[in-house]
Design a protein that fits this description.
Layout: H1 20-34, H2 41-48, H3 62-85, H4 92-109, H5 111-118, H6 125-150, H7 160-172, H8 174-177, H9 186-201
Helix pairs in contact: 1-2, 1-3, 1-5, 3-4, 3-5, 3-6, 4-5, 4-6, 4-7, 4-9, 6-7
């Protein structure tokens, strides 16, 4: 997350009405609307009402904004996985349900950043790093699936790697249709996805 500027340095502040957070939010909106590769710093400057040269007093580069946005999405998902891995009070099945439920909450809270993450294709070092982190999240989720199978809570006839991809695929599909302020809130969506996914995965339901 961006920190306010102070006497010893830190992130630069934008002009009034355009602080660092505002610049990042508007950049993510523009990247999602036009595509990251199709957006120039000049486009972003016009979106914010800056001159092309003035934009560089607020952000060092377009890739810096991309990195901040992808970190926002990935940090949230990694925190959810870590919390489940460290929760020794319940079994793997309950921890897996916890991950899916809270991943929906992350997506809803950070939908523009997650949308951008899902469109990354590895065209730069920043994007390649983001894809590596996504693969690590998938692997950690698959490990939880395997643990739930071993404890006898999940059916064992579907590969854990496939289960993890399908679970995240269901969660990620929200970026295509969910709109904040609509008729269904985040809690209802989290409950519905968790119920649909795990009623079908529970051991003995074949």
């Amino acid at each position: 997350m961006t920190q306010p500027a102070n006497e010893t340095g830190g992130a630069r502040r934008g002009r009034p009405g355009h602080d660092q957070e505002t610049v990042l939010r508007r950049a993510v909106e523009l990247f999602n609307r036009r595509g990251y590769d199709g957006t120039s710093m000049g486009d972003l400057a016009r979106e914010l009402g800056f001159t092309k040269s003035a934009i560089y007093h607020h952000v060092p580069s377009k890739s810096h904004l991309l990195e901040q946005a992808l970190d926002e999405a990935l940090d949230g998902l990694e925190a959810v996985i870590a919390a489940a891995e460290e929760n020794g009070s319940v079994g793997a099945y309950e921890r897996l349900r916890q991950v899916v439920h809270q991943s929906v909450e992350v997506l809803v809270a950070h939908q523009p950043a997650v949308t951008l993450l899902l469109r990354v294709r590895g065209n730069s070092d920043v994007e390649l790093t983001a894809l590596r982190r996504r693969r690590e999240i998938d692997a950690r989720l698959a490990a939880l699936v395997r643990a739930a199978v071993v404890e006898g809570s999940l059916r064992d006839d579907v590969a854990p790697d496939l289960v993890s991809r399908l679970l995240f695929g269901m969660v990620n599909s929200l970026v295509e249709w969910y709109r904040p302020g609509g008729p269904v809130d985040a809690d209802q969506i989290s409950d519905a996805i968790t119920t649909i996914a795990f009623d079908g995965l529970a051991a003995g339901r074949r």
